[in-house]
Amino acid sequence: MSSIVIAGGGTTGHVSPMLALGRALRRRHPDVRVLMVGTAEGLEARLVPEAGFDFATIARVPMPRKPSGAALRFPGRFAGTIRDMRRLIAQSGADAVVGVGGYVSTPAYLAARSMRVPIVVHEANFRPGLANRVGALLSDHVACAFPGTPLSGARPIGMPMRTEISQLDRAAARPEAAVRLGLDPALPTLAVTGGSLGAARLNAGLAAAREQIAAAGVQVVHLTGAGKDQPVREALGDLPRYHVLEYASRMEDVYAVADLIIARAGAGTVSEVTAVGLPAVYVPLPIGNGEQRLNARSAVEAGAATLVDDADFDGRTVAELVLPLLQDPRRLAAMTAASGTLPMRDADERLADMVDDAIEQGRRPGGRDRTRKAE
Ligand SMILES: CC(=O)N[C@H]1[C@@H](OP(=O)(O)OP(=O)(O)OC[C@H]2O[C@@H](n3ccc(=O)[nH]c3=O)[C@H](O)[C@@H]2O)O[C@H](CO)[C@@H](O)[C@@H]1O
């Protein structure tokens, strides 16, 4: 095996499965070259080189939604991204191209198909985006994180995530994680996270329940998102046992020390929280194609999490739902037990298996890969 291209990016949540797959491929094929392709604007431009993988960019060319000058320029610019992807695939001698969705994946799928390079698709959200719907038409090797995702031929394998999270034993890790975060391991602990982007609605709801939080004898670790900590520090930072952090680089520590988490329902957060068995209150972000509500659905239906609509989340939610739940160990234990019925913790390995299979099939004469069959 020589080289594998992994295309995608955007937020931390989008980059994490790319890195987790890259690491799984390196573990099993130490000599493989993994080339990640993203855009210069996405977080991948920082996170991928930091993680020690080769990185290349192509232009970010969003599909225009209305007639405009940009719409007229779109076909030429989009064709340019396919040409650039073809060049990267040729130069790296890629044996397979993996896409996780987003701007970069569509040109990656189309370029790979035109070069008869096997394609592997992973969809992180319950509701698939356009790029992966295109990818699924061109590949027999399609995976998704959540069971029931409506994507042609998709196999639910879970979400590739860092092994520090997928193999976390929360109880065993709690004491040291608490020390690293400067928390007391003996207190009931609430974590709050708005995903890699932060969430003003969550911040406001907690601020409105300031008195009740102060009286409850609990501690809070609140991840605000980069550059968004100031309003939270002003509203809550002076409370004893209220810890405000912009960003946790070791999310596993937060998951280990928390007894309950309030979170947006990004595909990454829901998958990780379910995998580690942490009870959750999800407040889906009401944007995009409504994917966040659906991401949370299987955890909520299994009894591992509770859902609160964004418009309904306020100080009363914190005072009347979150704090009583945080102080009810029996209910929390039942939610943790319910989590155990859901997660697939080895999605990185299972996606790496699919890459190996795709390459193997692509090598066989008359192999099943449609990228070859279609020629
Ligand atoms: C994978 C994916 O498709 N993600 C969704 C998510 O992206 P977004 O990246 O915002 O959120 P996710 O829940 O998917 O992932 C967050 C990731 O950031 C990590 N983390 C978070 C906070 C922190 O302090 N430290 C840290 O490391 C978490 O461990 C997790 O891996 O929200 C978008 C809306 O904005 C959705 O439409 C996206 O579909």
UniProtKB/TrEMBL annotation:
Membrane topology: Peripheral membrane protein
GO biological process: carbohydrate metabolic process; cell division; cell wall organization; peptidoglycan biosynthetic process; regulation of cell shape
Domain of life: Bacteria
Compartments where located: Cell membrane
EC number of this enzyme: 2.4.1.227
Span of domain Glycosyl transferase family 28 C-terminal: 189-351
An example Gene Ontology molecular-function term: undecaprenyldiphospho-muramoylpentapeptide beta-N-acetylglucosaminyltransferase activity
Biological or metabolic pathway of the protein: Cell wall biogenesis; peptidoglycan biosynthesis
Pfam families: Glyco_tran_28_C, Glyco_transf_28
Enzyme kind, highest EC tier: transferase
Keyword Cell membrane found: yes
UniProt entry keywords in alphabetical sequence: Cell cycle, Cell division, Cell membrane, Cell shape, Cell wall biogenesis/degradation, Glycosyltransferase, Membrane, Peptidoglycan synthesis, Transferase
Known catalytic reactions: di-trans,octa-cis-undecaprenyl diphospho-N-acetyl-alpha-D-muramoyl-L-alanyl-D-glutamyl-meso-2,6-diaminopimeloyl-D-alanyl-D-alanine + UDP-N-acetyl-alpha-D-glucosamine = di-trans,octa-cis-undecaprenyl diphospho-[N-acetyl-alpha-D-glucosaminyl-(1->4)]-N-acetyl-alpha-D-muramoyl-L-alanyl-D-glutamyl-meso-2,6-diaminopimeloyl-D-alanyl-D-alanine + UDP + H(+)
Binding residues annotated for UDP-N-acetyl-alpha-D-glucosamine, in chain numbering: N125, R162, S196, Q292
Residue span, Glycosyltransferase family 28 N-terminal domain: 4-138
GO CC term, one of those recorded: plasma membrane
InterPro entries named among the record's database cross-references: GlcNAc_MurG, Glyco_trans_28_C, GlycoTrans_28_N
Family in the record: Belongs to the glycosyltransferase 28 family. MurG subfamily.
Function: Cell wall formation. Catalyzes the transfer of a GlcNAc subunit on undecaprenyl-pyrophosphoryl-MurNAc-pentapeptide (lipid intermediate I) to form undecaprenyl-pyrophosphoryl-MurNAc-(pentapeptide)GlcNAc (lipid intermediate II).
Protein name: UDP-N-acetylglucosamine--N-acetylmuramyl-(pentapeptide) pyrophosphoryl-undecaprenol N-acetylglucosamine transferase
Gene source species: Sediminivirga luteola
